[in-house]
Write a structure and sequence with these properties.
The complex is a heterodimer of chains A (131) and B (284).
Chain A lengths: L1 H13 L2 H4 L2 H18 L4 H4 L4 H15 L11 H5 L6 H17 L4 H11 L3 H4 L3
Helix pairs in contact in A: 3-5, 3-7
Chain B lengths: L1 H11 L17 E2 L5 E2 L17 E11 L4 E11 L3 E11 L1 H6 L7 E14 L12 E11 L2 H6 L6 E13 L4 E10 L18 E13 L2 E8 L13 E11 L2 E9 L10 E10 L1
Antiparallel strand pairs in B: 1-2, 3-4, 3-14, 4-5, 5-6, 6-7, 7-8, 8-9, 9-10, 10-11, 11-12, 12-13, 13-14
Classes of the chains: A mainly alpha (131), B mainly beta (284).
Amino acid sequence: MMKLFVLFFSLSALAGPFEDFGGKEGLVKVVDDTMINLLADSKTKPFFEKADQTRIKEKLVEQFCVELNGPCTYTGQTMKRSHKGHDINSGHFYALVESLQKAMDKNRIPQRAQNKLLSKLAPMHKDIINK
Amino acid sequence: MLLLLLPLLALCLPSYAIETSGKLLLTGGVSSLEGSAGGGITPWALIGGYGTRDQIGANAYYTNIEVSEYALESYGALVGLYDRVELSAARQTFDTQNVGTKLGLGKGFKIKQDILGVKVKVLGDAVLEQASWLPQIAVGAQHKWNHEGNLVRALGARNDTGIDYYVSATKIFLGQSLLANATLRRTNANQLGILGFGGDANQKHKMYLEASLAYLLHRDLALGAEYRSKPDNLKVAEEEDWYDVFLAWAPTKNISLTLAYAMLGQVAIQDNQSAVYTSLQLGF
């Protein structure tokens, strides 16, 4: 019994959050679904409907991959630069989090891995909200 | 009563008129027994309701604590202003049931208490500041008025009104799916004030620690435990610390349901009271 526990915990430790997301392929699906949700939400739609969605999705996948310690390089702009002047308030910020959460749920990402990613993204509020 | 209706009326408002409910699910806590947002038996540093720093939030709640020998119910409402200030009002009714007979009050005698609360977020952000070790910190006060002044004085209490002051620190460790809260309260209330304030054994205000730890099973579901140390001022009725384990579920931002199993120690000469705690909250 003890051995089983040890095995279980070492296995769950081996599968890091990047693997929990299904690697880069999994992240692409999550980000695709997030964009669909963002465009369906009247709070976030105005920020994305006329933007280059393909590029944003590509950069988000890179960014999430980096934050989850995956084998990627982020090639996009800084958070400060990409959000400057967009008049984003905390309600918009949380609405984006909710779109991402819905997408992660849809792709059956484990709750702990979801929270791991969100905990890495949350501090970015400093460069995004009211900038 | 008007305060209770406010959140319900606001639920009927068309959502496009004013933006509301911007905060994430459960990040306003639930309504504690004394009306302030927090866990079940202790306030947290979180501001109640779902208003962001640009919005107003509000909710109303009803809580019932059922013990074999008595019952305690509490209802009230709160308004959260710009995720900064929280104003709350609560009424508690202690239905003595069989304890009433033992205290010589008559079976089913009810003791009521009203509480007005204010809480101000001082610094930090429990949700957003994930890279910092600094918790969200708030200070608050609860002014309590017991309706049965003569009775609580006869039991040995010094006063029928009192003010609790507290400071709360709440930290959400999102990467670990954990929420932790510690509250330091300065009070001389006997059983929250239901048995008055100060007493023949001790009448001074002292500091008491309250703590909560919750695991976020899902963003709409939290499982936790709480502890609240309490004064023991009355010779006639020994008072003990409280513990509970709770499950809080918020299927939407407009409704939450909290179930808890609480160990209330001795309350008014009834030994080792374990209680079932049920709470419903409606708001935005």
